[in-house]
Amino acid sequence: MTPIRRVWVTRAEPGAARTADRLTALGFTPLVVPLLTLAPLPGALDAAPDPAAVAVLALTSPNGVEAFAPLIPRFRDHPVFAVGDATAEAARAAGFTDVRSAAGDIHALARLIAAEAPPGPLLAPGAREPAGDLPALLPDRPVQRLPVYAAFETHAPAPATFDAVMLHSPRAARALAADLPRAASSGRIAICISEAAATPLHPFDFAQIRIAAAPDEPAMLSALGKPAAPV
Q: Which of 38, 95, 100, 161 is most buried (most C-beta within 10 Å)?
């Protein structure tokens, strides 16, 4: 198995650039070839309810915060429950004043909302194809999903040489599985944010599929270990 130095970053921009900076700081060589690209959904914000009809906001990614930005002044004082610290940080930077982080995945977010959110309807701006079903996890609360952006596959070819690939979502893993030749996985390592992101990779010949200890980027970077020494 080749020691890890060259790391393929598959996530969409602008997150890919942030990941590349972190990898560089740790001594890795990032190879930024996104498998997904993000775009706001035209007219999506027109379907947003009146702020008076919403008690709580749930945010599941920094991308959702960015796509929802035009409406933030109207919802600024609503309590916000964010799936993780990066999303919470993005929400605060965008102007929300009451933000709590679940520091985990969609299940952790649902538990935090159930335990701490004030009663009333919840609005969840996010992806057209979300990674989890928040309404199903909160059956006792009215939840309105508001798709504000969508992810599209780039079908970009893999870098010619890479030692490891980082997969930040099940959607990215499915995109990789659809286009990566099986031989291109041989001897390489996959770093997955969750078991769901690892599942599409099982038919491949990766030397290892490592699942992050927590569903966030710091845990994924930890799973990479230390970089190989430069030759």
A: 38
Residues in Cβ contact with 77 at an 8 Å cutoff, skipping those fewer than 6 apart: 97, 98
A 10 A CB-CB count for 160 gives 8
DSSP 8-state class, residue 186: T
> Maximum Cα–Cα distance for the chain, whole Å?
61
pTM listed for this prediction? 0.84
Q: Across the beta sheet with 143-153, what order do the strands follow?
A: 36-40, 143-153, 122-127, 56-59, 80-82, 99-101
Angstrom distances, CA of residue 205 to CA of 43, 162, 209: 43, 14, 10
What is the C-alpha to C-alpha distance for residues 119 and 99, in angstroms, rounded to an integer? 16
Handedness of CA 120, 121, 126, 132 (dihedral sign): positive
φ, ψ at 66 (rounded to 5°): -65, -45
Distance, C-alpha 62 to centroid of its chain: 8
Any bridge partners for residue 153, and if so which?
36
Strand blocks (E) in 61-139 = 80-82, 99-101, 122-127
pLDDT band at 229 (very low <50, low <70, confident <90, very high): confident
